[in-house]
Amino acid sequence: MKSAMSVPSEVVQQVAEYFSLLSEPMRLRLLTLLRDREKCVQELVEATQTSQANVSKHLKIMWQAGILSRRSEGTSAYYRVEDDMIFELCNQVCDRLANRIEQQAHQFRVINGKRQDARIGRHARGLPLP
Question: Terminal CA-to-CA distance of the chain, rounded, Å?
Answer without folding.
Answer: 51
